[in-house]
Each structure stands twice: as C-alpha cells, then as structure tokens.
DNA sequence: ATTAATTATAATATTTACTTATTGTTCTTA
DNA sequence: TAAGAACAATAAGTAAATATTATAATTAAT
C-alpha cells in the first residue's frame, strides 16, 4: 500500500517526524522525503513545521481524513482476501460497557482465544454512547452494550437477558420486613454515576414505583457499590452478573420485591456495512450463542 | 497513489495485460510484475490467466471492488485539496435524461465552459433510474432528470418547471374544433417508448382525462416524434423545450385544452455525501440559477 | 551564548521499478 | 498437424526511486 499516505498519517498523529520515523523503522530523512514527495504530488503543503511543533494545516486535515478512510479500506480488503484462504485472523476491536466488559467479556475472550488464537482482540470500555460513536467512526468493529444506539449506520441485536436485583447486606433489619415502595424509599440507595446504563435502570425503577429515596449515594464503580452494600452503607440495584460471588459467600442478599428482577437486554452493536470478516463472524456467533438470546 | 492497484484495476477492466500496458504507457512485463507483486503482497492469486482470457477470481473481485472505492477516494482527496488553492477544475461527470440532455444541458455546458474552462465535463444520458443508480455507484457526480429517485444515498431538488403541450401539425382539422377528451381519444397519438419520463406524463394524462386513444404509435426519439407530428401522422404531448423552433416556424401548433400545459419539475439529483468540490458547486449553482426554480 | 531538539539537505548506497529481448504457452487456421 | 498469432512470463540489464549516513540549519529553552 501507498507508503506516502502511511508515513503522512503517522507524522500527523505523532506531530513529530523523528518519532514517526522510529515507529515506522526508517530514518528521519526518509520521512522528510516522503512528506515532501506527497506535498509535491498534491501540489500543496500539508504540514506546518517548526522544530517545536508539527501541525497539519487545512489541506493536511483533508488528507488525514481521507487517508484514514483509504487505509482502513485497504486493511479491510486485505482481511477479506486473507479470509478466503486462511482461518479467522487479525485484529478484532471490541467495545463494551463496564458491566459487560468486566463480567461477561473475559469468558468470551477466553473462548475466542481457545479456538481462534490467530484473532487478536483489543477492548475499549465506555458507555453505550461512546461505543456507538466509536462504531460510527470505525474505531471499533463490534460493541457489546446495555442499551440501544440510534444511528442509521448502526444495528443493535439483543444477545442476552440480564436480571437486576435489589441487594442489601445480610445484617439489615430490612430483610425481615415485607418490602414495599415505602420501605425502599426509607433506605439509603447507592447508585452508579450519571451516564451509566445501570444508573438509568435504577432511575426508571424509582419512577415506575414512585419511589424517591431519602438518601442517594453515587459511586463510580460496581465494585465500590458492592463493598458499600456489604458494609451496610445502603442498598442498591445491580445485575445478577456482578453479585454472583457475594451471594454465594452470603455477604449480600437479594430482596424479594414484586417487579424484580428487572429484566433488560444486552445488545450486540455493529456497523451496518458490507465488511464482515471471519474474525467478526466468529466472535459474534460466540457472543450470541452465549446464552438464551433474541 | 499506489501504482499496484491502478495497474490491477486496468488489467481487470480490460482483461488483457498488453492492452493495459499500452493504456498506462508502460511495457507489458512491467504490468506482469505489478500484478505479481500485488498477488505476493496479498498472498493470493487475483487473476486467472491463460493466453486467451484474463479473469478476476474471487479474491480479485474483492480487490476490484475495494480498489474502485480506494482510488475514488484518492481522487476526491486530490480534488478537494486542489480546490483549496485553485479555481474549480477537474472532471465533472454529469448524468441527464434525454430531454434535458438534448435541450437544456448544451446551454449549461456552454456557460460552464465560458467561466470555468478548467472543468472538464462528461455527459451520460439515461432515464431517471439509470441516472439514479449511476449516482449511487459513483459513476457520475450529478444528475439532471425529470423524475425523482428514492434511495437513502441520493437527494433530489427541483430546479426548473417544465410545461408540456399537446401538439399537432398545422393542417389538422382538429385545430378548428373545441378540444374535448373525446376528440383527443379519436386521434392517433405518437408517444415515446416505455421508461421515458415523457411517456410517463402522457400515460398519466390519459388516465386523468379518461382517454384511451384509438391508435398509439411508439417512437424512440423526440426528434422522430416531432417529424411524425409535422407530417400529420398524429398528435403528441411534448415539453415546450423540444418544440420551440417548430412553433416559431409554424410547423406545429399547440392545442388548447383545459389541463394543459401539464407542469412537471426537473430535478437536480446528487449523492448525499461529504464530497462537494468546487466544480460540482459551480455547476449546481449554474443549473439552479437557470430559471425560476424551487 | 550554549545546548538540546528538531527538520532539511547532500551525498551515497541500495532497492525497486521499468525496459528490451526472449521464451514458453495456448489457441487458431490453413 | 504444422505454422502462425496472440499472449503472459522470465531474464538481464538499466533507470529511477527510495533508503541511509552524515551534516547543516533552525528554533526554543536554559
């Protein structure tokens, strides 16, 4: 593939000729020459350079944008052609929400590794929005998330049902009461931060049962929330995935309440696009076979 | 840009190494070497070749499809970069219906030529469907047609109102009568072939006024139809654009009939896409300024 | 001013690309 | 079935491009 574009892209990303040369295993003058050749060919300067800063200019921005797309297409072409002869292989860029990334993805990756060691997965964690927009900009190949994302380029398919339970520490007097909305509203709730899929479920739950809790504590991770619940700090609503071990060890108990468990779907999100290499097929199948889905 | 892909594309199109070499102004062995190098790089054969046939195989099809897109993107990039510094320039591929292509486009091209001689237009003629699908496959940059085309990738904007009149030769006794649907149905009608925009208007006209003509003659071009009408062979319904000269020379007369002239819009169709170079802007503006539009 | 960090230039070496000449196929046709 | 035509592949040499090393030039920071 056209080396000029590759070199330009690297320089534009690193904003540094010498470092780009290193990464590309070539000498710095070679990089200078490539850039000069490309600028000559296009008849326009692409990089404003002093010895302190290298910056793409307006023309450089255009070339960078197109270059990204051109190189991506070339790579996709290589992958599809290689797929014709070889086992599924190559990079597979997965995006996942926190919950899925922490509790579900590890086993998926293990299965993938076992049967298809030539596939090299990488994982980005983010909320549904993040994953969706990374999909649109082709920064990941597939997403596993807790919500849907509306964009004409993206399709979402449910692959697993998740159940969320209200949990408390084992010491709470609450455990002996009959659980009513009023009882729940009287408790301290520990919930995830704004933007989290689990937070959203909790808010919908409150709304549905007309609960406005006395005290809300927001914590940034599921792990911390579980520790808070264990310590008797308050109660929470969490996915069964995240509390399995604590239940087994009897550190945390589920509360019986009509309307729980709350069910929600996990979704596979992917680009509505013609590019569908073996590696992606294999991973998607593995995910969708994981449990009673659809 | 990557010469390997360019050479491959040319060979795949021409199905012939030697002819590709000629067109690319290089020797035949050079072409052989490029193809071999590309096949080596991708690790797969792309062309099945005997000395009678050269054919792309499955892998070759993938490379051809991606190659087309990659080279197109590279060209678009070059055009946009050049637009930053230079006057509108480069190839501009226009698609037009027969009527527009014959009667309207020449003056557009003349205007374009006058002010922007660096733009090199090429014209493909076809019906709305043809033009629409050529737009989708990026074989043209803009279309001027008589109908709309529904595809998420394509947008249509009206740019001019067209009027169609019923015409007859000057000798017809018809000219002295009061024109009613019954009178029209009694005449011989000369109409365009199936698939033509004008044909469609005529059919709608018949339907609307419950006319089923005694005799229909289908002819393949507007020019031939006009000659038929002049010769008294029958009457027709044609765009004012096409009959201007014949009216002036009093070879053909318009019939007065309630519901004529029939109005329809001409549309600019373009790809709903980020690529919008100066040459395309200039041409579109010229077209849309051409008459009272929108 | 000196130094450090950086890109550009020059000269040279190496690799790749391209050419001509030739060979080896396969299909056609006489 | 032999000869010829049409074609791609190969070989060998040449031209062109792409690298490298060494060095210069520029700028910012100390």
UniProtKB/TrEMBL annotation, chains A, B:
InterPro entries: LysR_HTH_N (IPR000847), LysR_subst-bd (IPR005119), WH-like_DNA-bd_sf (IPR036388), WH_DNA-bd_sf (IPR036390). CDD domains: PBP2_CysL_like. One of its GO terms (molecular function) is transcription cis-regulatory region binding. Keywords: DNA-binding, Transcription, Transcription regulation. Residues 1-57 form the HTH lysR-type domain. Belongs to the LysR transcriptional regulatory family. PANTHER family: HTH-TYPE TRANSCRIPTIONAL REGULATOR, HTH-TYPE TRANSCRIPTIONAL REGULATOR CYSL. This is LysR family transcriptional regulator. It comes from Oceanobacillus piezotolerans. The lineage of its organism: Bacteria, Bacillati, Bacillota, Bacilli, Bacillales.
């Amino acid at each position: 593939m056209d080396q000029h574009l590759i070199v330009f892209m690297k320089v534009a990303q690193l904003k540094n000729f010498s470092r780009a040369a290193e990464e590309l295993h070539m000498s710095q003058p070679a990089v200078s020459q490539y850039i000069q050749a490309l600028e000559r060919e296009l008849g326009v300067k692409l990089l404003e350079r002093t010895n302190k800063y290298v910056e793409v200019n307006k023309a450089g921005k255009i070339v960078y944008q197109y270059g990204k797309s051109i190189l991506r297409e070339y790579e996709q072409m290589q992958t599809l052609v290689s797929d014709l002869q070889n086992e599924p292989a190559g990079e597979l860029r997965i995006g996942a929400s926190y919950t899925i990334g922490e509790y579900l993805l590890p086993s998926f990756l293990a299965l993938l590794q076992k049967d298809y060691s030539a596939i090299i997965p990488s994982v980005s964690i983010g909320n549904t929005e993040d994953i969706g927009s990374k999909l649109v900009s082709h920064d990941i190949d597939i997403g596993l998330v807790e919500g849907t994302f509306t964009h004409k380029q993206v399709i979402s398919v449910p692959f697993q049902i998740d159940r969320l339970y209200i949990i408390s520490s084992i010491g709470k007097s609450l455990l002996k009461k009959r659980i009513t909305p009023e009882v729940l509203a009287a408790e301290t709730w520990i919930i995830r931060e704004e933007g989290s899929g689990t937070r959203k479920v909790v808010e919908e739950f409150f709304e549905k049962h007309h609960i406005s809790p006395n005290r809300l504590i927001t914590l940034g991770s599921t792990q911390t929330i579980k520790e808070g619940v264990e310590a008797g700090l308050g109660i929470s609503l969490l996915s069964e995935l995240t509390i399995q071990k604590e239940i087994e060890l009897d550190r945390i108990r589920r509360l019986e309440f009509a309307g729980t468990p709350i069910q929600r779907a996990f979704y596979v999100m992917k680009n509505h696009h013609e590019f569908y290499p073996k590696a992606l097929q294999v991973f998607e199948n593995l995910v969708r076979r994981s449990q009673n889905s659809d």
